[in-house]
Amino acid sequence: MKMSAPKIKILTLDGGGIRGILPCAILAELEKRLNKPVSQVFDLMAGTSTGGIIACGLNIPDPARPGQPKFSAATFGQLYEKDGAKIFKKRGGFFGGVTSVFEESFGHDGLEELLLQYFGDVELRETIGEVLVTSYDIEQRKPFYFLSRLAKMQAPGENFRLRDIARSTSAAPTYFEPNQLSWQTDKFLALVDGGVFANNPSMLAYTEAIELLRRRNQGSAAPVAAPVAVVEEAGEFESFTAEVSSAESLDYFMLSLGTGHVTKPYLYDKAKNWGQAQWLRPILDILMQGVSETVDYQMRYVLPPDQNGTPQYVRINPDIPEENAEMSDVSDKNIAGLQAVAAKAIQDNDRMIDQVCTILS
């Protein structure tokens, strides 16, 4: 059976802190098999939190090689594997344990220094491919979307430095303080992690892809539009052959990469007696994972397999052992554990990854 060639290829990347090691490893495997950077394969990359950092980082142009990215997925993954301790550096001092209840757990200086090192002053309008990154404005009480499409069209108030975008999308409540970002002439944004409403940005990416395809079909004269995406188990691909038909075409194909499905339970006998302080971190974890799984459920219906069996939506999101669940654990032991989870996910999904490469080729 022949596989259809998609018109718009979409990559989405969940939030998950240091667990960004997982999608970086899978993308590095894709680049190895495709022999090209993912920024040249996907028409759109969408990310939330750590996924937003990755989406931006893989679209930074190399000043010495026009049209090529500065970082491969394997190289950019070093931000987590080698420099993770700089991101999640706990506040120190005698009252460190006390203030963690009343303030964010981590200072943002280390994160900002690392983002400056990797991103420099590159702006959203300069990205190699199209990018969508989520954040939430706590003063205006509404989502804020960073869209390269609008930045490249010079829409007012839409262009930002990538390092500011990365800082904003990853400002997880209780982990980092909100990011105040100058906006337009006399305004500013007060932004926190997009994971509070869209930890899995697949549905948002799907709506942006609709606009990208509409503009492609109508040509560059199309007006600027405001921003408005089922297969996971490898066994479901077994009937496909590695052949792409140029005669048939899908509108969309989406690869959605999670940062791991956390299996750690919150036991009723303990949770029933928790107060506000004890619920802070668990509720953030539950909300982010719940949002990710809800969107995954929706996307399976929005982008079902084509009539000939070609998948339009593939999600890879391996189970995360309880000991590797904490998204701020930058210990050598945990990083090694996450690398092992990533390696197993690649091995378990070997056939699926091959078929995804066929669709993307």
Task: Lay out the secondary structure.
Blueprint: E1 3-13, H1 21-34, E2 44-47, H2 50-57, E3 61-62, E4 65-69, H3 73-76, H4 78-81, H5 84-87, H6 96-102, H7 109-119, E5 130-137, E6 142-147, H8 148-152, H9 162-169, E7 179-183, E8 187-193, H10 195-198, H11 202-218, E9 244-257, E10 261-262, H12 268-271, H13 276-302, E11 313-316, E12 319-320, H14 332-348, H15 350-360
Parallel strand pairs: 1-2, 1-9, 2-5, 9-11, 10-12
Antiparallel strand pairs: 3-4, 5-6, 5-8, 7-8
Helix pairs in contact: 1-14, 1-15, 2-9, 7-9
Structural class: alpha/beta
Unreliable spans are: 92-104, 227-248
Main sheet specs = 8 strands, mixed
Give the CA-based shape: globular
SS summary, helix count = 15
Strand content: 15-25%
Query: For the residues shown, what is the average pLDDT?
Result: 85
H/E element string? EHEHEEHHHHHEEHHEEHHEEHHEEHH
Please give the share of residues in helix: 40-55%
Structure summary, number of beta strands: 12
Kindly provide the radius of gyration, computed on alpha-carbon positions and rounded to a whole number of angstroms: 20 Å
Distance between the termini: 17 Å
Note down, in words, how this protein is organized.
The structure is a single chain. With about 350 residues, this protein is α/β, with parallel strands linked by helices. Helices cover about 40% and strands about 20% of the residues. It contains 15 helices and 12 strands. The chain has helices at about 20-35, 50-55, 75, 80, 85, 95-100, 110-120, 150, 160-170, 195-200, 200-220, 270, 275-300, 330-350, 350-360, and strands at about 5-15, 45, 60, 65-70, 130-135, 140-145, 180-185, 185-195, 245-255, 260, 315, 320. Strands 1, 2, 5, 6, 7, 8, 9 and 11 form an 8-stranded mixed β-sheet that branches. A two-stranded antiparallel ribbon has the order 3-4. A two-stranded parallel sheet has the order 10-12. A hairpin with a 2-residue loop joins strand 3 (about 60) and strand 4 (about 65-70). The longest helix has 27 residues, at about 275-300. The radius of gyration is 20 Å and the shape is globular. Mean pLDDT is about 85; it is low at about 90-105 and about 225-250.
